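Give me the fold.
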Amino acid sequence: MPEKKKKTEQKPGPNNKPKEKEKIIEPEVMEEKPAETKIVKAIPDTDKLMNLAKILSMSGMFPNIHNEYEAAAVIEMGRALNINHIMALQTIAPVGGRLCIESKVLYALALDKGIKIKIVKKDPKGCTLEFSSPGRDPITTSFTEEDSKRAGLNTKPGFMKYPEEMHFNRCISKGLRAFDPRVLLGISTKEEAEDFEQSPLAQTAAAKKSAKAEEEKKQQVTFTKTKEQPAAEPEKEEKPPEPPEPPESPEGVKEKEKVVEDIKAYLKEAKIEGKEVKVDEKLFKKWLGEELQPSRKDREFVGLKFGNWSLNEGNFEDLKLLGENMQWAVEEYLESETFKAEAQKEEPDEEKKEPPL
């Protein structure tokens, strides 16, 4: 029987391509798509926020909160820092018209951002911390017993009872401001704000402010006028003349000279974060007289003598206050316009002309 020939299928090759079926192209129908909208994180419902704030403020569990408005502000600040509202009310408080956080919260926020904080030293004499994070050079910051004395903190009850923790708290805020200010974002710690509010400068300013408010209140008294009786005019109080200031005693003069000598000695050996800084005494006194005193009109740290600013012409009590806060004064001086203007004068020109041969 004749063998049947097997049908061989042609394999597709470069010259033998399978025929593709013709595609039927249908007209496309253009559908209108709604415009994309960006989702913006909305402000929370004000009614719900205020109801929550009212309930929590009335609970009496948060002594730093006085009303629902303060509670609402604290809850919102906690939300911005990713802190639960209960924890926020326990660790955030209004001090001097600003919301401030406790140092332990600042410590936790720094750790959450990947900042490593190594305790190099922590004892009643001071604290030293090392701050580091991936890709950045570490820095070391200290806050010692001498720093607390200069700032007038060593007599505070907290520093006297718990010096280790107080030095640690101050070292945390000081170090983070230098290493990564993004953690604080301008927020003050509760401990710093409370100490500042109780400082002699703040107490004097507060007393003057309250006295001025009382005086304005007295001047705002209204007088009614009837048909029969004319309006009464306020009687002017005659103030007795102020007695002349007594001359300074020899002991007072010597004590004042000692304070002036201590201030000058500090300027020669001034240090910021453990590094020596050069402070020009004449320029420092100029800053005191032309920048600091005009902003604090109740203080007189220097006075003019033969056309030059002199510490000996300043008020004794003000000089004592200055001597107790010299670190703060030097830091403010280095950020002042007086110092910056003088620094620009001393900068050499980039292109120096070569002297002729």
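Strands lie at 92-95, 98-101, 116-123, 126-133, 136-144, 271-272, 275-276, 303-305, 308-310.
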